[in-house]
Specification:
Radius of gyration: 26 Å
Distance between the termini: 51 Å
Shape: elongated
Structural class: mainly alpha
Length: 225
């Protein structure tokens, strides 16, 4: 059975790659701003403003796609792993409920990582990475929110703008890596479970065929007697 999150995973990865590229461009503009503000305002400010508009629109699109993706990912997790503790609806609540999301976002990846680690051997590496990346995630989210408020002021220092751009780039890169790890882990788990199911079906068919052969031989012997 195909993964329900496969299509959204591909879409989200493409969008996150674009967002990371824009964040890298934003970091480059911040470096210019920190070095020479006159050059920045004379030659790069209009491009910087356009990049900010594109990034904001893309961020909003990604937010919607991400919520759909996390919902479908948990549909797959509940199908692939018995007694998975978080339903698709509760996963959405972890992302959307104010203040609770500070705990809900990293805990969601902690649970995914733990089940990958304890599941099939083929997804153990992904589980380790997901658990490891979920730890700094909450800190980066909080720091990004604080820095964005500070950067929105009229007079911003070059060091502050450079710090905000660097943290945003790291945060977006981590979300991209997590998306790739979760997607790869689900694909591997699905393939492993399909192979095991097929192997069990083949073994059952062979056992049934042997039983039918044995039963047929017994009937033949009884008729001869």
């Amino acid at each position: 059975m195909p993964l329900k999150s496969e299509t959204m995973s591909n879409v989200l990865k493409i969008l996150l790659w674009v967002l990371v590229a824009l964040a890298a461009a934003d970091l480059a503009f911040s470096v210019i701003y920190a070095i020479d503000q006159d050059v920045f305002f004379d030659q790069f400010y209009s491009i910087y403003g356009f990049e900010n508009i594109i990034s904001t629109v893309l961020y909003l699109i990604i937010a919607v796609v991400y919520l759909i993706w996390i919902y479908r990912v948990h549909m797959d997790l509940n199908r692939l792993f018995l007694r998975y503790p978080r339903t698709p609806g509760s996963a959405l609540a972890c992302m959307l409920v104010p203040f609770y999301s500070i705990y809900g976002v990293p805990s969601t990846y902690q649970i995914i990582g733990n089940h990958f680690r304890k599941g099939t051997e083929c997804v153990r590496r992904e589980g380790e990475w997901i658990r490891g990346l979920s730890i700094p995630l909450v800190l980066l989210i909080l720091v990004t929110q604080v820095l964005n408020r500070l950067v929105s002021a009229d007079d911003v220092s070059g060091a502050l703008l450079l710090t905000a751009s660097s943290v945003a780039l790291i945060l977006y890169a981590i979300f991209l890596i997590l998306c790739m790890l979760v997607s790869n882990g689900l694909r591997k788990a699905e393939a492993e479970i399909s192979r095991n199911t097929q192997a069990e079906a083949d073994a059952s068919s062979e056992a049934l065929a042997e039983w039918n052969d044995a039963e047929g031989s017994t009937i033949s012997l009884e008729k001869k007697e």
